[in-house]
Design a protein that fits this description.
With 142 residues, the chain is mainly α. The chain is built from ten helices and no strands. 24% of the residues are buried.
């Protein structure tokens, strides 16, 4: 398997690349007739375009200057290293979540938040916080 094939596989398996969302946000990609993932790997990440609603490329590069200085694809960095290092895929303040975020997505985010803080995610803790939302509460019951 080539290194490019491995990169594609890792990104697809991460669930963080959403081809439909990427095309919706970047109409030029559709106009060029390019495969969305190929565009992201070849050019999109360099243009600080996000691969989906659950990873903010520009935020990641702003927050982690070491990644920006390495000229490393930020999504691949997050998948390979950043997640395990406790780095944030996007601004995790609850107000920053998209209204259409699904319970499954929130579960992944909640799990990442719990890992960064060194403890498992607790829905009772989430619902007792000042910023409790119906979406977070729904994620806890699924």
């Amino acid at each position: 398997m080539s290194s490019k094939d491995l990169e594609r596989k890792e990104i697809i398996e991460s669930g963080l690349f959403d081809p439909s969302w990427y095309l919706e946000q970047n109409s030029d990609v559709g106009m060029l007739g390019m495969d969305p993932l190929e565009h992201f790997l070849w050019l999109g990440a360099r243009l600080k375009r996000s691969p989906g609603p659950n990873f903010d490329t520009a935020q990641y590069l702003r927050t982690y200057g070491d990644v920006a200085r390495q000229n490393y694809n930020p999504l691949l960095h997050y998948i390979r290293y950043g997640r395990n290092e406790g780095r944030q895929a996007f601004d995790v303040s609850w107000e920053g979540l998209a209204p259409a975020a699904t319970a499954r997505t929130l579960g992944r985010v909640a799990g990442d938040v719990g890992k960064r803080r060194g403890r498992p995610w607790s829905c009772s803790a989430a619902t007792s916080q000042e910023r409790t939302s119906l979406v977070v509460s729904a994620a806890c019951w699924i």
